[in-house]
Amino acid sequence: MSDNPLIMRKTSSCSRWIDQMHNEYFCAHMSEEEKIAAEESFKAYINPTELYMKLQDRAKKNPLFLQRSLSYKIEAKHQRRIQMTVSLSDTIETQKLFPLYVFLARLVSPEPTAEYSAVYKFSRTCSIPGGVDGKANFLLPEMDRLALKAGSVDLLFISFAGEQNFDSSKIRSGNIGGHCFLSKIPLETLYSSWKKYPNMGLGERATSVSLVEMQPYFLQLKCIMSEQCVEIQVPRNPLTSSSPQQVQVTISAQELLIFLYRKFVYYSCLKYILPDKW
To answer: Which residues form the DUF7651 domain (predicted)?
Structure first.
């Protein structure tokens, strides 16, 4: 069919005239029952036809509607985050370690040995004060993005139990240090366990329980090139250091949708740990 508007208008006008002639002819030769049946059939037909015409008119005025709908879905996918909650068992042994600090940190130097120290870069710490309500919450990227960089991030558990004159308000100031108990769980291990939950993207909560061993270390918070870091060193004399302590840690994760106004929370918490394009 030609795209000429004049020809299209003439063709459309001719079609309407032929339809009108047919309708007049059939109406003149139809019985009353046939007219009633035709009217009912027309009523059943006209509603979806009107809906189709409205959709067609909307598509002409806004041809990018489907593309914009796809963009909304992509944007919603980018807003998905994993909320990770960390809690400890409330036992007599665990109470001795409170308050316990949880660091989401990335290793930037080799593992600590008797001669060398390890340095972790972090941007946020959460404190677990103890009790049944003591929890630490973190926001992580959605599963597909988390898989790319999970191997470089660790969850550090640090307790200054027994350290004299320790001021918890200075935990982020970079001028404190001393003996502590420390343990870690690689984020890659947690990611592997979360993959066993196929419905996590639908809101299913993944829960894992781990028994971590808190080892004695010497810790110093410092600032390196305007970035917050924690330096961890094995005690020089292990024989005089405190004995390790075991703690049961419960970690739950749930994928959820974070709205645009909460994006700054995610980036401010993780921009020093994870790449900007997560």
So the answer is: 71-256
b/e 66-103 (16+ beta carbons within 10 angstroms → b):
eeeeeeeeeeeeebbbbebbbbbeeeeebeebbbbbbb
Which tens digit of pLDDT belongs to each residue from 207-244?
889 888 888 888 887 777 777 888 888 877 654 556 77
pTM higher than the cut 0.90: no
Runs of H (alpha helix) within 79-109: 92-95
Domain boundaries, the chain: 5-72, 81-270
Identity (one letter) of the amino acid at 242?
A: S
**Per the structure block, which two tokens stand in for 251?**
């970690």
Angle at 136 between CA 133 and CA 140, to 5 degrees: 140
The token duo for 50 is: 């009107």
Both tokens assigned to 98: 């409170």
Residue of 214, 212, 213, 208 whose CA lies nearest to 250: 208
Is the Cβ–Cβ distance between 132 and 94 less than 8 Å?
A: no
Determine how many CB atoms are found less than 10 A away from the CB of residue 170. Answer: 11
Short-list 122, 82, 94, 138, CA closest to 249? 94
